[in-house]
């Protein structure tokens, strides 16, 4: 099958990208590269909402989306429909050419990255055939089956879990994110963009409030109704409130809400080098089911 590619059109292409990711999960879930929640989060947190030059889509002869490539920094993320994996070779070649043109005449970093699940032999073969070698960086993919009851939530006295209260609390919610991920480029405009995404639900934008009302921890849970799965992204806690079990309690409450909605699984990705976060998710009951490994080559 032949494919044609073009730049992303923000006025009409986003539903097709979401549909592709949902189809990929329906076929390969839970071992996927992203959920619709990831896509919504990435779209909302970009620094320049007008610039889409890093994103290109590949369409088959019937007008169906076969895949898309999302570039950022010195790397590319490849997303394809499970029945159209051959398009990934074109996507990878395009990303490399784009980066070569960007680096022409400069002394910029020439190491280029792509990613592959340890279970994805097709992607690993493609990368190896094109001169990539496996690097040490990876993200762990955690899964929480929701067949049974979720353990009870335990909080210190006076702390409460609830959704973000409303517009009057947006500023505090943004500041909490910035404290948790200092240094951070998260802004009020980005948070407003988060709340406008199609997967976003106000009842799943959760915070832990201290006895005096100060926001202490947060998590957004993105619920994919088509596949009945939820993903936590992002999850964080203000430094002064850490080591009190707040984030663990927040995750359990999110899982409980997800189960009430009919969810089958809860997911979260984690930088495998972040030992505290890895231990946190394991303590909640998440199981690591795969890793997304970095692969590199010099351009």
Shape: globular
Major β-sheet, in short? 8 strands, mixed
Q: Mind telling me the C-alpha Rg?
A: 20 Å
Q: Report the uncertain regions.
A: none
Set down the secondary structure blueprint.
Blueprint: E1 3-7, H1 14-28, H2 36-44, E2 55-60, E3 65-72, E4 75-80, H3 87-103, E5 111-117, H4 121-129, E6 133-145, E7 160-163, H5 170-180, H6 188-195, E8 205-209, E9 215-224, E10 229-237, H7 246-260, E11 265-271, H8 275-284, E12 287-298
Parallel strand pairs: 10-11
Antiparallel strand pairs: 1-2, 2-3, 3-4, 5-12, 6-11, 6-12, 7-8, 8-9, 9-10
Helix pairs in contact: 2-6, 7-8
Question: How is this structure best described in words?
Answer:
This protein is of the alpha+beta class. The two termini are 29 Å apart. Helix content is 31%, strand content 31%. The protein is globular, with a radius of gyration of 20 Å. The longest helix is centred in the N-terminal third of the chain and has 17 residues, at 87-103. The strands form 2 sheets. Strands 5-12-6-11-10-9-8-7 form an 8-stranded mixed beta sheet. It has a 4-stranded antiparallel beta sheet with strand order 1-2-3-4, sandwiched between helices. Residues 159-299 form the N-acetyltransferase domain.
Précis, in short:
With 299 residues, the chain is an alpha+beta fold. It is 31% helix and 31% strand. An 8-stranded mixed sheet has the order 5-12-6-11-10-9-8-7.
